[in-house]
Amino acid sequence: MKYHLVTLGCQMNISDSGRVKSYIEKLGYSFTDNPHEADLLGVIACSVRQKAIDKVYNLIAVWNRQKKDRPLTTFLTGCILPDDREKFLKTFDMVFDMRDLTKFAEMLSEKIHEGTYYPKLSREEQAYQMDYFWKLEGRQPDKFEAFVPIQNGCDKFCTYCAVPYTRGREVSRSSSEIVEEVKCLVNAGFKSITLLGQNVNSYGLDKKGKELTFAQLLDLIGRYGDESGKEFFVYFTSPHPRDMTDDVLETVAKYRCLGKWIHIPIQSGDNEVLQRMNRKYDIDRYRSVINSIRRILPTATIFTDIIVGFTGETLEEFSNTRKAMMEFKYNMAFIAMYSPRPGAKSSEWVDDIPKDEKSRRYAVLSEDLKAVSSQYTAQMVGKDFRILVNGHDRLEGYLSGLTEGKIAVRFKSQNENLIGSFVNVKITKSSDFSAEGEMIN
Ligand code: SF4
Known about the structure:
alpha/beta, 22% strand, 5-stranded mixed barrel, 4 domains, binds iron/sulfur cluster, globular, single chain
């Protein structure tokens, strides 16, 4: 028996797909790249973006046509909005929430069409199901870079975001399981491990007094890093500015294995927009977080996420985001042009910034980003950096990798054996977001 799986969406969906694969293989299926030879066809979907939804419709149309030629079963899981769920129940054989995966075998044999719909479950019931899910073996998509889920769901309800409606309430995974998984990955040779969650720094708040705080969890991992004597980095994404505390940053500062890279989404530099987004912080609060990062982790790089053209964003409000970009000097910003996500609160509001204007703001802010990030990369020239080599560069004869702060660096080498290991590189040249150098001993 063979199965084929298509994964759409973010790092969390990719991480989920590792557990789905290991579960299905335990049922006796083996993976095939070729959907035409599969008996079981599945999608781990992100129904948050229309593009992904269109792709799911195309896939299921093709798969359902194949049913005329051979018996096959289709399923859909992942982040599915309530409205999409209703529609997809008409086209897929099975639609279920990720936390229902452990009932998959029963659903398959009993021909049960629909899993438990999470809003019908209490937070405790959701936590109970997630505990089962997290106990499954997490296959990694790469040989030296791994993702470890530490939390599921979100309680923040930003108005532009559908995650709380697709993944449910915030539930923290057991800290002992997380540390155990990190240890296994390090022992298996993984060099870069990212702790994943929608709000990593509110880790443990749903189990106050019964579970570690996020800083305590990092401390355990940091201590293990010191004791193991191995070289690896542990990162986390994404923290929420409202919940960021100095003890988290101090813990990162204390241990070598905790990567000096902070991804802290700002979304907008304007207080009015932040309020409309329901981000639960203002720019003064955000500034104090950045100041703490600079003070406690002076070598850290800072990445962010920004939305331009959010409903009602005036030119003045946009200019405040430009000011924030210049003030906080990000190394990287993932800039998105606002588009309403079905199911999210803001999708009920008029999307009143024309597409051309969103594109213009995107281009302007991208130029601002280049201006600030290139200041950092220019300062790298002449210095030595430890690089985790992750593959071939686009330029022939070069390998590339990432610094501890996730700045891309390329260097001349044809030695493929270096991929997946750390090397020292002296930087000789820089560009807007990356650098080039020569390998040294
Ligand atoms: S954007 Fe807001 S609502 Fe969405 S996952 Fe992040 S914190 Fe939660």
